[in-house]
Amino acid sequence: MKKLLSTIVLAIVATAGWAQTRIWNNIVTGYSNVPFVKVTKVVLSADSTEVFMHFDMPERAAGQEGVLAAKSLLQADGKTYEAKNAVGMKLGQPVKIPKDCKVDFSLVFDALPASTWLFSISDPGMWIINAVRDADANADADVPPVGITDTYWRNTLTGDWLIGFAQHHVIYNNKVWDILNQTEQKDTYVLTLNDGLTIKVGKLKKGIRPITIGTGKAIACNPITQEALPDYPTKDTRKGFVDNGYREGDSVTIVGWLKDMPEQAWKQSGEFEVGTSNFITDKTESFTAKLDSLGRFTLRMPILNSTTAILDPRRSWEWSVLEPGKTYFFLNDFTTGQKLFMGDDVRLQNELVACDATWPETRINPGESAMQFMERANKVFDAIITKMQADITHRPNLSQRYIDYIKGLCMAGQGYSMMQARFDVPGNILPKEYMDYVNTKLWQPAPKPYTLYSEFPRFMRDYLDQLRDERHSVSIDPYRITLNDGAYPIILRQARADGKVSITDEELALMERYAVEFHKEYAKQAKNQKIDSLNIDLAGTDLDKLGIAEQYLAIMERPDVKKAIEQEISLIDLYYQKQAIESATTDRALIDLALARKFYWKLNSFRKSLDPSDLNFANKEIKLASALNFVLTENDKYVALEHQDLANAASLRPSTDVANMTDGEKMLRKIIEPYKGRVIYLDVWGTWCSPCKQKLKDSWKVKEALKDYDIVYLYLCNGSSDASWKNVIKEYNLTGPNCVHYNLPKEQQSAIEHYLSVNSFPTYKIIDKQGNIHDLGWLDDQNLEAFKQTMGKFCK
Asked: pTM of this prediction?
C-alpha cells in the first residue's frame, strides 16, 4: 500500500511539473563547432519539446542545397532523443538555401522531464551545440548559484568582472592562480593561492557576496549568470580609441583560458589564435600561442595600431577590439557558454560580446543603377543606426566608445560596399553625386586610427582607384586603359625641383591642360571602338586647332624632358596614387600608408625586387617609419630570393624547345612529347595573377596527396618577366624531377592558350596517357580525397 501511495504521489508531482508549458526565450549555450547555427527558443510541454533554430550561413551558400540529418539528436540527463519531426525543413531531405542565406526552422522531440534545465543538440557529423539553457532561469537574484565553484563575480560598483572560481583555480588580475588550500564554513570561503595571496568570500545575501582580496577592503560582488557581462551600472562618456601614430614595435598581450573544452574542440586546434587584417596587404595575419593541458595561454602579438580582431576563430569566434599597449584576459567557458574579458579597460570588449556588432555586406544588384544602390545602402545604414538607438533606449549605459565603434563600422562597411559598386556600373565610373556622397559622408569623417576596421583600407583602395580612373583612365569594354599623359607634368615638376630639367610654369600648365583635354577626347573617340583596332585622331579637335597638341609634342621632344620621363616611366602608378591620396586627404600618416600599399601591390604583383627609381621614390616620399620599413623589408625578401640558387634548374625549359613554331596545338604536342605515356597535370598561370599564386603556394598539398601516382606537373606561364617567373618558382619550391616550367614569348603562349580555350587564370587541364586533354575546375582539388580518386582513374 505504501509503495502504491508513493507511485501516486510521484505521478501527481510529474503531472504538476507539466501543469503549464515552459518557454525559454533568452537562450544561452556552451560550445558550438560552427558560428552560423543558433538556438533561438525552446518550448517544453507535456507531450513534446520543440527547439527553434536559426541558420545564418556564409554568402557562398546561397542557392546551394542543404540537408538536415534524418536523425538530429538531443541529449539531456544522460538520455538521447531523436527528432520526430521538423518544421520549416524536412528531416533528411535537401532544401535550397535562400538568397539571404538565412533559414529558420524547428526540431520536435519527445517531451523532456520537467526537471530538465540544460541539454545539447546536434546534427551528427555537421554541427553541435552544447549546454542549451534559459538564461532567465538564473537571472533572478532569488535563484543564485550554489557555492562558488565554476562561478564568476563582478564588482557591483564598477560593473567589471573581478574574479572567477574554478574547482582548483581562481581567475584574478588577468591570471589563473592555483588554489593551494580552501576552507568552507556556513557558505563562507577562505582560499589561499599559490603565491600566498588570501581571498575571503563572504556569505551570500540577497544575491551579493563580499569578497576580500589580500589586505584590501571587501568588495560587494554579484554573480555573472548570463553569456556575457551584464550592462555596466554607469555611463562611460569617453570617446576615441588608442592611437599610437602607427608606431613600430608596439604590441598587445592576451592572456586567457579556454575552459572545459570538449574533445571535439581540442581536436580543432591545440593553439589559441588571433586573426587581424594587415592594413597594407589586406591579408589576414594569424598569431598563435600554445594551449596548456587545461586550455590556458598567453599571447603577445605585434600591432600597428588599434584594430578589430577575431579571437580563437575555430572555436570561440569572438570579434573584439585590440589597442596597443593593453593586456586583456579572455575567458571562454565551454560548459556555460560564457565569454568574459578582464583587464584595466575592457568595457568596450565586454559590450561587444554582449551586443551584436556586425555590418551586413551590401552589394549592388544586377540592373540596379548606382543611385538606386546608394539609396538602398543608406537604408541599410539607417536601419542599423535605428537598431542601435533602440538598444541604447533599452541599455542606456552602453558606452560612447561602443556607440562610436558601431557607427564607424557601419561607415567603413558602407564605404567599401558603395565603392565596390564601381565594378558593376557601365564604364566602371560612378556618378558625381554618388562620389560626392561617399566623400562627404563616409571618407572625410572616417574614424581614426585608420587600422580600426578591416573594411577601411579596402574602401580606400577602391576610392583612390576611382579618383585615378576619373582623371586618367578610359574604359574600352571589357578593358580599362590608363593614360600616362597626366603623370608627365607631375614627373617634370619634381625633376625641375631636383635640377634635372628646365621647364616653365606656363609649359607645365599647358601639359596639364593637354592631359585633361586629351583624356576627354580619347574617351569620346574610344567609346565605339574595339581595343584591337583603336585609333585616336586629334586632327580637327580643339587640341589641334588651338595648337596645344603641337606645343605639347615639342616639349616632349626636348632631350632633358625625354630623359626625365624615361627615368620615371615605371613609377606612373605611384605618381597617380600620390596624386589621388593627396587630393583626398592632408593626413600625412594616411598618405604614407596609401603609398606603402601601392608599393606592396607592385612587389606582390611582379614578385621581383624594386628598381632603384622605385626605392628612391619610397625613401623620398614615405615619411612614416613603419610604412617605409614595411616596404623595404618586403623588398629585401625578393632581393634575397634573386640571389638564391635555383634548385633543380633543369625543371625550367628554354623557349628554344619550340623555336620558330606558331601553331598552338603543335607547340603543346612538342612540349609534352618527352612525357608520352604519362599523366600530365597542366597549370596555366601568371605571376600577376593572385589566385594563381595562392594555388601555387598550396600546391604542395596536391602533390603530397598524389605522391603515389606517376604525374608530370607542367606549368605554362603567361605574360611574366623572367625574373618574376623564377622568383615565384623559388618562393614556392616548384622544381623537381617531375616538374616542367615554360615562360614562352607572348605570341607562342597566346597560341597555346587559344588552342586550350583558356579564358581565365589559373586554368587547369589533365592530359591522359593517350594525349587526350580533359578540363579540370580550378577548385576541383578542394576536396583532396575526391580529387585523388579522380586522378587515380587517369593513372591506372
From this structure: 0.85
